[in-house]
Design a protein that fits this description.
It is built from 13 helices and seven strands. It is mainly alpha-helical and 333 residues long. The N and C termini lie far apart (73 Å).
């Protein structure tokens, strides 16, 4: 009996491999063998060509593109390599820099190498929108301003700020992708990630926008292992009516990346993002948090801490006592 349930469970990669298998059979039925360049060591100074992979392209189309460009001896040489590798279904759309006259298996490996993707956009966890926009402008794929395109992006439900919802990941885009669609794909990735973690405040006090803001603060303030505790400190200080007094919000305000020292003068700057001068959360996120920080925002640790400080790399300490915090601050200084 035909197993329809098994068929429904085919993954995207499985569908990809299945389509390649049928393509190979069709070619073999049509007659003849196939050509493939020999497997060899590729030197750093060999000639290469830029290959554009369209969004949604599968084996037959990719193989023909490679053959037409002189990368492989025949499209079938790529088909055969792809059929034997389940990773073939994850070839990214966009422009890839590929060597000429290489075997089908080597062509597959080069297409799977992110270092060979031209104009790859890498969003680090905690990156600011301004930094992401600079990357997009540097690719020279688009002529329009990213800031202008950002105004046309559809934000997630309950979110008012694009800052915070450009999900950290590596992105490459096929030729013809608009800048608005590129930004939208980053927001869509954010939606996909939070859908799996029940992104709702368990205490019923914070909105979705505020949760993303908390996640951005957590991301900026500590290591992954400390995220849940930092999230709790933020909540405890909010509940106690204390200013958050987080250096990261002032660094964001001043656009000073990578600095540790914060002057007394900086803590007196007039801005809603200055958590030394204002109570409550800043008006919007101060960066784009990763999944671990988003999880910590909705799942804070249990504790009564009101203060934390990193006295050395990997040594972040939490306490309810201001006196103990002051002692650690001297140690840090």
């Amino acid at each position: 009996m035909f197993n329809y349930l098994a068929l429904k469970r085919l993954t995207l990669a499985g569908v990809f491999i299945l389509s390649l298998t049928f393509a190979l059979r069709a070619m073999n039925i049509a007659g003849g063998g196939y050509q493939d360049f020999p497997v060899r060591e590729i030197s750093a100074n060999e000639e290469s060509v830029e290959i554009s992979i369209p969004t949604g392209a599968f084996g037959a189309e990719i193989g023909q593109i490679l053959e037409n460009a002189g990368v492989v001896a025949s499209s079938e040489s790529f088909f055969r390599a792809a059929v034997g590798n389940p990773k073939a279904g994850s070839i990214a759309p966009g422009t890839h820099k590929i060597n000429l006259k290489i075997s089908g298996s080597e062509a597959l490996m080069q297409l799977l190498d992110p270092k060979r993707i031209v104009n790859l956009i890498k969003i680090a966890e905690g990156a600011w929108n301004s930094e992401i926009f600079a990357q997009m402008s540097a690719t020279q794929i688009w002529s329009e301003s990213p800031k202008a395109s950002a105004k046309l992006v559809k934000l997630p439900v309950g979110i008012k700020s694009l800052e915070g919802v450009l999900f950290p990941a590596q992105y490459s885009f096929a030729e013809g992708t608009t800048q608005v669609d590129a930004l939208q794909s980053m927001v869509d990735k954010f939606n996909q990630e939070i859908a799996g973690i029940d992104f709702v405040d368990p205490e019923g006090k914070l909105t979705s926008q505020q949760l993303v803001t908390v996640a951005s603060l957590v991301q900026a303030e500590g290591d992954t292992k400390d995220f849940a505790q930092i999230s709790r400190v933020i909540r405890n200080r909010l509940a106690a009516g204390m200013p958050l007094q987080l250096d990261s919000t002032v660094h964001y305000l001043k656009a000073t990346r990578g600095q540790i020292y914060l002057s007394m003068k900086s803590t007196k700057l007039k801005s809603p993002y200055n958590t030394y001068q204002n109570y409550g959360l800043p008006p919007a996120p101060i960066g784009n948090p990763g999944l671990a920080a988003l999880k910590a925002a909705v799942a804070p640790a249990t504790g009564d801490w009101l203060f934390f400080i990193t006295v050395a790399p990997g040594d972040t300490r939490f306490t309810k006592s201001y006196n103990e915090f002051s002692e650690w601050k001297v140690l840090y200084q």
